[in-house]
Amino acid sequence: MTGFSKYGAEVTEVTKPTDDDILLAQVALGDRDAFSKLYLKYQPRLVSYCARLLNDDLAQAADIVDEAMFDVWRSAGRFEGKSKPSTWIYSITRNKLISWLRKTSEVTLGDDESLLAMIDPANSLEDELALTDMKQQLVRLMSQLTTEHREVLRLTYFEDKSVKEVALLLGISENTVKTRMFYARKRLAQLLEKAGIVEFDL
């Protein structure tokens, strides 16, 4: 992305590499530890994604994902950064899944529309990965809150407790719960904005 400085000179906005970008670069150099980190991060979610289209056959889903991750290991050096690493890894897995479906079902090689229709774009793995990453960042930022504020957010957001239930659990009044939630959300919103995360519903 380009723009202009106050002196009229063109400047280029440099995108900071993500943790996954760094890991992929290390994998491209043959770093097995970096690959293990990527594998542990993505494998469970990839298996869950594939299993949905395989009648919950987790064993077959795991085999497909392992093949996909092996391709990630072999081709990490060809990742050009034109998309997010999660998108790239998702695409490799999706292609492996489609290939397997073609070989083992009655779907013909030319019937791409049927295969594409089997994957709901609204619930794509990329969306799930983004949401999971967002939640991980939220948990990390919550660690910067006071114990009292962190506790009410944990109970309301992650355990889906009502204000009344939180009050009973913590032994405080419902008004105190609401006050803590107000200031906890306000502080967390500041932390989210500072971290560049502005599209999270609090």
Question: How would you portray this structure in words?
Answer:
The chain is mainly α and 202 residues long. The protein has two domains: 19-119, Orthogonal Bundle (Rna Polymerase Sigma Factor, Chain: A); 143-194, Winged helix-like DNA-binding domain superfamily/Winged helix DNA-binding domain (Arc Repressor Mutant, subunit A), CATH 1.10.10. Helices cover 66% and strands 3% of the residues. It is built from nine helices and two strands; from the N terminus they run E-E-H-H-H-H-H-H-H-H-H. The protein has helices at residues 19-28, 32-52, 58-75, 85-104, 112-117, 125-142, 147-158, 163-170, 174-194; strands spanning 2-4, 10-12. Strands 1-2 form a two-stranded antiparallel sheet. A hairpin with a 5-residue loop joins strand 1 (2-4) and strand 2. Helix 2 runs antiparallel to helix 3 and helix 8 packs across helix 9 (174-194). The longest helix is centred in the first third of the chain and has 21 residues, at 32-52. 18% of the residues are buried. Mean pLDDT is 76; it is low at 1-15 and 108-123.
Secondary-structure blueprint of this entry?
Layout lengths: L1 E3 L5 E3 L6 H10 L3 H21 L5 H18 L9 H20 L7 H6 L7 H18 L4 H12 L4 H8 L3 H21 L8
Antiparallel strand pairs: 1-2
Helix pairs in contact: 1-2, 2-3, 3-4, 7-9, 8-9
